[in-house]
Design a protein that fits this description.
Elements lengths: L10 E4 L12 H5 L1 E7 L13 H7 L7 E3 L11 E3 L2 E8 L2 E6 L13 H11 L9 H4 L3 E7 L2 E6 L6 H6 L7 H4 L22 E7 L3 E6 L11 E7 L2 H9 L5 E2 L5 H4 L8 E7 L2 E7 L15 H9 L3 H9 L28 H10 L3 E2 L5 E3 L2 E2 L1 E7 L3 H17 L2 E7 L1 H9 L5 E7 L6 H6 L15 H11 L4 H18 L2 E5 L2 E7 L2 E2 L16 E2 L8 E4 L3
Helix pairs in contact: 9-11, 15-16
């Protein structure tokens, strides 16, 4: 993301008439305020229309799932889920689950939450008109039936070990009495904040586009927040958000950024730095074949791919980009993914072995130091998005490492829309990518199997053995057995080297020391904010920005 210093006049005015929704809460809690510095601004806060992480952070405090998956839990493990809008659930048969809503659940306008709301919400998330991100996991796979006003049955069209996950993770429950009257094709353009009625611990008080959004505690909710008011300050880039924190105008920042930016907090006693694994991994993918299946002249050769992996000090790259808590991942996964294991086999960093392998395969150095085989030079280009400084830096580090190995490498940075179009159409040799994990491991199929050629497998890699092992693992319902199968699949993938899995970073959050009881769920860093507590000295008079004249 491009750095831009946050400048301009900040005119402030006191927050007035913003308080808790119940006199039962203590004054200190009602008055307590935290300010979050956010990079970017959500397009929408209505759950099926939320695409950005900042929108998810805000929306998930207003709306609820039926149940939440514990941080680090496996989607296969029923014990890893905790009740939210549903108080309990049970499996009826291999295709059906029953959910019972919690007693007394109400929408923030006082209307009772019913099973019809659940049925309506699943229908909305599966609707092609709304086109929610999760639609592919729901459409034509799940049917919701109302048993009684407090009970629903969720039926699947085929057995799967992740049924409980699919029944809870993707869908936030919406109030049917509010949204059923609104044509769905108009939802994306709807700006009526009064319709953003949830059942969660906070309610939306106001949203001034381009500046800030304010949530206030709903003390009638089941999870009664200990912090009365949360303000999101929206900024144009990461540098501006960081400056809000360093200037004392914000209390929380999800990720400080690079080691150089983290160093700016040295000696700052106002903030505590909290490290936690990010749900992201970065990689360089080779174009193994073109769209017709013809092998790439360089990367269609398995020996070359393996040599380039062995010629890469992945740990040094990861730490140079994101600091000492970053890891070189053992495959296409973040530090968070439940199948991550130190037992996964990876190719070693061994430049001597890499050179010997290239020599043995007939890739000989020429007078210019570049290797050739049958007239084909070991030369290629790395495509990177110009908007990502970390990916550009990684590409340059690889370029230098592989020069010593006898490869002639160029780096091309293009605008992100151009980058997306070129990788989608196969117009690259290699590209620097980064994917965001969800708790399920099935995303591996989208990016690295033959079935993913029409999805995210832009390098057109294919290995029937890997595909078979991954499919078998995805059908296994025992956590330990599935983990072993996933490990075998990853061993196979790593040995074939369709990509170099470079970094799985850790975020470092900045948290003002006036907050305690802090737990961070890496998949949604503010989801446990209702349990955070202000210290006795933490009540602050907050202010919000007003547009400069």
């Amino acid at each position: 993301m491009n750095a831009r210093v946050f400048r301009g006049l900040l005119l402030t005015l006191p927050l007035v008439a913003v308080g808790c929704q119940s006199s039962a809460h203590s004054c200190s809690t009602c008055e307590s305020t935290v300010v979050v510095a956010a990079t970017g601004e959500p397009h929408s806060l209505l759950p099926p229309l939320v695409y950005q992480s900042v929108g998810r952070d805000i929306s998930d405090l207003i709306f609820e799932r039926l149940a939440d998956l514990k941080a680090g839990g496996s989607p296969l493990d029923p014990a890893a889920f905790v009740p939210r809008l549903a108080a309990r659930w049970e499996r009826i048969d291999s295709l059906t689950w029953r959910f019972r809503l919690r007693d007394g659940a109400r929408w923030q306008d006082g209307t009772p939450v019913t099973a019809e709301d659940v049925r309506f919400s699943f229908e909305v998330f599966a609707d092609s008109i709304v086109d929610a991100v999760a639609r592919t996991y729901l459409a034509n796979r799940i049917r919701v039936e109302v048993e009684d006003p407090r009970t629903v049955r969720i039926r699947f069209n085929e057995p799967s070990p992740e049924q409980l996950y699919d029944a809870t993770y993707h869908v936030r429950i919406l109030p049917q009495h509010v949204w059923s009257r609104i044509p769905r094709e108009t939802w994306a353009a709807d700006t009526n904040l009064a319709r953003l009625v949830g059942s969660g611990p906070y309610r939306l008080h106001s949203w001034k586009r381009g500046q800030h959004a304010i949530l206030v505690a709903d003390t009638s909710a089941q999870r009664k927040p200990r912090i009365g008011r949360v303000i999101w300050r929206f900024t144009g880039d990461a540098e501006a958000a960081l400056n809000l924190v360093l200037s004392g105008e914000a209390d929380l920042l999800e990720s400080i950024g690079s080691p150089q930016q983290i160093a700016r907090f040295e000696g700052d006693t106002l903030f505590e730095l909290r490290s936690y694994p990010a749900a992201v991994y970065g990689f360089l993918a080779f174009r193994v074949a073109d769209r017709g299946g013809k092998p790439h002249p360089v990367f269609g050769n398995r020996v070359v791919r393996r040599a380039l992996v062995m010629g890469t000090d992945r740990t040094t790259v990861a730490r140079a980009l994101f600091g000492k808590e970053s890891r070189a991942p053992a495959g296409p996964m973040s530090q968070l993914l439940w199948i991550n294991s130190p037992d996964v086999a990876v190719l070693p960093y061994d430049t001597s072995a890499a050179a010997r392998a290239l020599d043995a395969a007939g890739w000989q150095r020429g007078p210019d130091g570049v290797r050739r085989s049958g007239g084909t030079p070991l030369a290629f280009n790395i495509l990177v998005p110009s908007t990502s400084g970390s990916r550009r830096q990684a590409a340059v580090m690889l370029q230098e490492s592989w020069r010593h190995l006898g490869a002639k490498v160029s780096v091309t940075a293009v605008d992100f829309p151009v980058f997306q179009e070129r990788i989608r159409t196969g117009k690259f040799d290699a590209y620097m990518g980064a994917y965001l994990d969800e708790p399920s491991a099935r995303g591996l199929a989208d990016g690295w199997t033959r079935a993913g050629w029409d999805g995210l497998n832009y390098g057109r890699y294919s290995n029937p053995v890997f595909d078979s092992l991954l499919s078998k693992a995805a059908r296994t319902d025992q956590v330990r057995a599935a983990r072993l199968l996933y490990r075998e699949a990853l061993d196979t993938l790593n040995a074939d080297a369709p990509a170099i899995f470079l970094y799985a970073p850790a975020n470092v959050a900045a948290v003002r020391r006036t907050l305690s009881g802090i737990r961070i769920n890496p998949y949604s860093w503010l989801s446990d904010l209702p349990e955070w507590r202000p210290t006795p000295t933490a009540v602050r008079t907050a202010s919000v920005p007003r547009a400069s004249p």
